[in-house]
What does this fold into?
Amino acid sequence: MARAHNFYAGPAVLPEPALQAGVEALRDYKGIGMSVIEISHRSKEFTEIIETTEADIRELMNIPDNYHVLFMTGGASTQFALIPMTFLKRKADYVDTGAWSAKAIKEAVRFGEVHLAGSGKEGGYTRIPDSLDLSPDADYVHVTSNNTIYGTQWSEFPDTGDVPLVCDMSSDILCREIDVTKFALIYAGAQKNMGPAGVTVVILRDDLLQRVPAELPTMFKYTTYAEKKSLFNTPPVFPIFMVGQVAKWLKDIGGVKEIERRNREKAAMLYDVLDRYDIYRPHAHPSSRSLMNVTWRMTDEKLEAELLAAAAERRMYGLKGHRSVGGLRASIYNACPVESVKALCDLLVEFAESH
Amino acid sequence: MARAHNFYAGPAVLPEPALQAGVEALRDYKGIGMSVIEISHRSKEFTEIIETTEADIRELMNIPDNYHVLFMTGGASTQFALIPMTFLKRKADYVDTGAWSAKAIKEAVRFGEVHLAGSGKEGGYTRIPDSLDLSPDADYVHVTSNNTIYGTQWSEFPDTGDVPLVCDMSSDILCREIDVTKFALIYAGAQKNMGPAGVTVVILRDDLLQRVPAELPTMFKYTTYAEKKSLFNTPPVFPIFMVGQVAKWLKDIGGVKEIERRNREKAAMLYDVLDRYDIYRPHAHPSSRSLMNVTWRMTDEKLEAELLAAAAERRMYGLKGHRSVGGLRASIYNACPVESVKALCDLLVEFAESH
It folds into this structure.
């Protein structure tokens, strides 16, 4: 079947070359007579897979040697607990920019004092706070880089000085060039911009490992993953293989610089159409608009249902907005082809002009 | 490439029909124009996948309605911590039958008193203890059903009366008929007998949920997975899909009864050859031999290396014993075809008769 237009918020569209490599490796990995999911995680084949994947992520993001790249499981939701469990000794600053930030805060308060350094809640999470009330003595500052549900994104990250900056980058990692050295810890569930569901990538500055309490269970310690190169126990083999294939695709097309160019082009096309017609009401304030998740309501709910039905006829899927916001949402992650965005723009124009 | 003979201890060989279904679903799931790893975990397609997978596991294992079937992550190693974190209030009984039991104990002692109800350590873990010293007031009893490294397996599980029996069944779940009602909690990393790496199946009796402490982080609570049907956050989509395909294959060939018959036949063939020639020294005591992992040493280490090389020439992989035991190990899980076991037996006979 020809490819559908996939606007799911995650798990989401993946690059075709990565999928093709996945199909081949699943059938028979490099002609060894076994599938990639049938080989030991201690085999030379998997050792090469995990090492290459790490090296490619390091190259793409320009990650310095004093940072570890870890492959963990349990998604961002598990990191919401592991981070305060590990680093929250007294007080941490959190910025609440949407549902995922709020969930991170909910887990953190179990472990210590949480200071709300900024919040977009009162404004309906339409924008990233302009200024923050940071605590100079915080154990760390936690931000959510991109807010899938509300369609907002930090355009510039706060300067937290000597206080470690921790960032949930699940929905926009690798979407644009960033300076990793501004962060102490970056984490991302893979299933939006890096690969399939089932693996969480953690990028962690080495000196933070000294803060890991010895008494934590082995699998909840970042030190375990750092010391054993994510191979203390069996890691999620296929998800890691696919993250490697997505990284390879990104390198092949020209790296993060090129994908950022494409992402800005795709997002601009879509916001331009939404801004042009009164029938569309973009949710995010222009200063805080996401390159990854474009959210909007329409003048009435019937029109939203009608538009969703018209989209389905053109094989466009995943456009229904999150239940907490309503309306529509187009997730246009790295792997979303510009053709899909053009097709959606065409529909939006036709729909607006006929209503 | 023709299939190799795969004796890896895990991740391990999978059934060809399951792999074929994986290849097709990865390319395009049921003709929807998207891969199975590109669809939302809230989509109707994935809802059907996870529900069917659960239903098939329930049918295969004859799991009563008062048990939950949960799909978690982090492997058995994470369960080693979650179980005492959740259920160890005062004292728990553990039986040490090998390296994995020992790792479970190492995590448990962080949370309370561990009483060693039995141990095979002094005997080099060659057998499952004949009798146990169980505490009537224990919070639970923990056993490891099958010991991949030493090649031993419980043939009959202990009767723990009213004390909940918790079992790590990672390496032999679904290998034989068991009475689930004897257990309060069964857990298994999928990557040996159920599917690929990346998902942990937990079978939990409903009344145990009342013991889950409210203060635990959301992702560490069994209640979260039970209440949200393993969909609180994004689950490992592809590993779950593959577990479903392995379950379907098992149903198609005649269920657990038939696979048990095959497993007993395969194991008997192999032990029979090992017992026939003095050159082979099976590790496990005959009373405790595993149906899944057959371990042996040889009269000298040079012969072991020679046999491994001869096996590699015949495209037999994964036969090197675990570093802590040495020698050789043939893991002959459910999906290992009888043809592979026959090929190995042929080699063993030829090798013995020519040395």
In short: Chain B has a mean pLDDT of 97.
